Amino acid sequence: MAARSLLTFLLFLSSLFPAALSTTFTLTNSCAYTVWPGLLSSAGTPTLDTTGFALAPGESRAVEAPSAWSGRLWARTGCGYDSNGRFSCGTCDCGSGAMECSGGGAAPPCSLAEFTLAGSGGNDFYDVSLVDGYNIAMAVLPQLADGAAAADGAGCAATGCSADLNGPCPADLRVSGPDGAGIACKSACEAFGKPEDCCSGDFGTPAACRPSASSMFFKNACPRAYSYAYDDATSTFTCASGTASYLLVFCPTTTAIASLKSTVSGTSSSPALPAVNNTVSNLGRSRDSGSGWPYAPSSSHASMSSAPSPIALAVVTAFTWDFITRRHWLPPS
Fold first, then answer.
1. How many of the other CB atoms lie within 10 Å of CB of 153?
2. Contact 67, 242 (CB under 8 A)
3. Does the pTM of the predicted model rise above 0.85?
4. Are the C-beta atoms of 234 and 273 separated by less than 8 Å?
5. How many CB atoms lie within 10 A of CB 142?
C-alpha cells in the first residue's frame, strides 16, 4: 500500500512541476558557409548552457532549454578573430569579443527566432522576426514527439523566411560587405529612425503604427515573419507546451519548407495560418539596437503562470519530507 501511495503521490507531484522539464532546440546549418549562432535569454529566465558557437555547413547542434524559458536565437555571419584575438562578426555581432555572446544581443540588422515556452494557456509561443532587419534565411520547424512536423492549420506550424533578401534589398536599406555584395538588409526603423517606422512616440499603438512600404518588402517576401512591431496576427505561432521540440534551420531549402512562400520573384502565395494569439504585444522590438531584450516579457504569451508559487513549493517540500520520514520511502519487506 505504501509503495502504491508513494507512486500516486509522485505522479501528482510531477504534475505540479512542468517547468522542471526541458525543451530541445536543434540548430542546423543548411548554408554553404559557416554560421555562428547566438542565443540570448530574456530577463527573468535562466541562461542556457551556451550563448554562442560555430556551425559548419551541414552541421547540427542540440541545445536544451528549461520549459519556461524565453529568449531569442540568431545566426552571425562573416565572423573571425583579429590580430588581438578579439572575435567579431559582419552581421548580428553581439559585441562580446568572443564566440560566446555572454548576455549580449544581436546588433541589427538581424533575422531573429523568438520563443516563450510554457506561456499562457499552456502553450509555447514562437516567431521569426525581421523587425530588426534581415541577414539570413531561417525557419522554425516544430517537431512532434513522433519526429514528424505538424500539419498546417493544426497548430505547431512552420514559420520563418526562406527567401534570400540580401540581393533584392532596396538600396537605402542594404548593408554591403567588403566586396560590395549585400550581406544584410536594414529595417526602416534602423535606416531612418522615424517614429512611424519604429512604432514609437505618437505611433506607439497598434492603431497608430501601420505597415510601411519598407516593412511590406519584408512581409511580401516572408508572409509568416514579423515585418513590424504590431504584426502579431499573421506572425505569432503556438504549440502546446511539452509536445514538441524545435528545429531551427539556417538557409532552409524551399523544398523542405514548401509552406513558406514569398512574392519576391513576382508570384504571390499566402499559406494558410494556424490560430494565433492576437493579444501579443511586441513593443520595443525595433528599438533593440543590439543591446539584448530591453523590454520585460509582460505580454500575454510571456505569462509564467504555469510555474508553482514559492508557497506551493514550501508546502509540497514539507509534505514530501513528512511522507518520506513516516513511510521510510519504501514499505518493509
1. 11
2. yes
3. no
4. yes
5. 23
Q: Exposed (0-12), middle (13-18) or buried (19+): which is 269, by Cβ within 10 Å? A: exposed
DSSP SS3 for 286? helix
CA 187/CA 172 separation, integer angstroms: 10
Which residues lie below 8 Å from residue 238, measured CB to CB, with a gap of 6+?
A: 121, 123, 124, 125, 126, 155, 156, 274, 275, 276, 277, 301
Read off the amino acid at residue 255.
T
Q: Give mean pLDDT, residues 148-166.
A: 78
3-class secondary structure per residue, 44-68: CCCCCCCCECCECCCCEEEEEEECC
Block residue for cell numbers 538581424: 110
Q: From residue 57, give the alpha-carbon distance in Å to each of 3, 74, 164, 182.
A: 52, 16, 17, 20
225 burial (CB, 10 Å; 0-12 / 13-18 / 19+) is buried
Res 234: pLDDT: 86
Q: How confident is the model at residue 13 (pLDDT cuts 50, 70, 90)?
A: very low
